[in-house]
């Protein structure tokens, strides 16, 4: 990219801030040298509060993930926020019209009416633009689920509400999702929801499922409180995969799948109360953690943090919500009494 793209007169890298030396020197590098990172959800069109390194997977403290942070102590201006939103909106439109692979950062900058250097300042690469899209969806979803989470206590109703709310939010982007799915489907791609680059967007989505579980009437053993929300999120990813290729009117089949999937998930959570089934739940979780790159890193971090500790289950103690099989049930005998009604 010519240096003039980033330093042309009258086109500062960010409103009110001159372009740093070397801005635009190489595609894919944020203008100030601190590459923006995919990460936490943003308020619609909102910029990052602090920067991060794409290499390290660092994230802004709050707000949009792919934008470069302003100078220390300097607040984002409305003009800056508008520019970032304009670039993202333009990119999403071009991705849908031309396809992800055929859309260049230069084309996005031209359509948005900004310099190439200015586009790279806000988004270090096309991948960061897609991460910006993830962030937008995540923030809109977080807001959309509030009514159902505040009104419902039944786990199945909460789960179904969260899944159908996601389908509502994602509906305008259906064709666009199909365009870049071939990239996102590769677990090694930074566009994959399982990649290290997507960690903070992924954690924001898992946080919603953590709230679904915590606010419900479902009884959950302490040792499974961190595991189950991740498995619930994985079930949502299965729904997303189906939705990408769903050509039914209004994604009606995906909506039916969301409701039935919520029912099945609810039954799985209920069965997880039984102590004898908990090893199976942990094994399923470990299977995904070991084979999906981003989740493997998160699992390794948790194991390191928890080294030397032990749960009540590991120590042989019962926990709130424990269900033990009766004496005759291990041999296949039919339970009687309260256990039979569980």
From TrEMBL:
Which residue stretches belong to region Disordered?
1-83, 299-342
- Give me the positions annotated for DNA binding: 104-123
Q: Where is the composition biased (Low complexity)?
A: 1-73
What keywords sit in the KW lines? DNA-binding
The protein's matches in InterPro entries, at most eight in alphabetical order, are given as: DNA-bd_HTH_TetR-type_CS, Homeodomain-like_sf, HTH-type_TetR-like_transc_reg, HTH_TetR, Tet_transcr_reg_TetR-rel_C_sf, TetR_C_23
Question: Which intervals carry biased composition (Basic and acidic residues)?
Answer: 315-326
Where in this chain does the record put each HTH tetR-type domain? 81-141
Which named protein is this?
HTH tetR-type domain-containing protein
């Amino acid at each position: 990219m010519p240096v003039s793209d980033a330093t042309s007169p009258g086109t500062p890298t960010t409103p009110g801030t001159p372009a740093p030396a070397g801005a635009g020197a190489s595609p894919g590098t944020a203008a100030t040298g601190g590459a923006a990172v995919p990460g936490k959800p943003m308020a619609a069109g909102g910029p990052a509060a602090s920067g991060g390194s794409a290499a390290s997977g660092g994230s802004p403290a709050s707000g949009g993930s792919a934008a470069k942070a302003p100078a220390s102590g300097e607040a984002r201006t409305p003009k800056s926020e508008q520019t970032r939103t304009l670039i993202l909106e333009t990119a999403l439109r071009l991705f849908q019209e031309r396809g992800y692979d055929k859309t260049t950062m230069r084309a996005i900058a031209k359509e948005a009416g900004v310099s190439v250097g200015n586009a790279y300042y806000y988004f270090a690469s096309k991948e960061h633009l897609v991460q910006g899209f993830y962030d937008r969806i995540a923030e809109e979803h977080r807001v959309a689920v509030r009514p159902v989470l505040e009104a419902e206590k039944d786990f199945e109703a909460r789960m179904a509400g969260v899944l159908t709310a996601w389908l509502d939010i994602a509906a305008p982007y259906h064709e666009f999702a199909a365009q870049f799915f071939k990239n996102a489907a590769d677990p090694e791609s930074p566009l994959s929801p399982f990649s290290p680059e997507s960690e903070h967007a992924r954690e924001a989505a898992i946080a919603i499922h953590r709230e679904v579980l915590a606010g419900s009437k479902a009884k959950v053993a302490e040792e499974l409180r961190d595991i189950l929300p991740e498995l619930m999120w994985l079930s949502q990813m299965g729904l997303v995969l189906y939705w990408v290729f769903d050509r039914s009117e209004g994604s009606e089949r995906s909506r039916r799948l969301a409701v039935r999937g919520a029912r099945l998930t609810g039954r799985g959570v209920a069965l997880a109360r039984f102590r004898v089934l908990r090893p199976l739940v942990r094994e399923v979780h470990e299977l995904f953690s070991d084979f999906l790159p981003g989740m493997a890193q998160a699992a390794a971090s948790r194991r390191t943090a928890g080294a030397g500790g032990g749960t009540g289950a590991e120590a042989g103690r019962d926990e709130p919500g424990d269900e033990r099989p009766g004496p005759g049930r291990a041999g296949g005998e039919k339970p009687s009494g309260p256990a039979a009604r569980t």
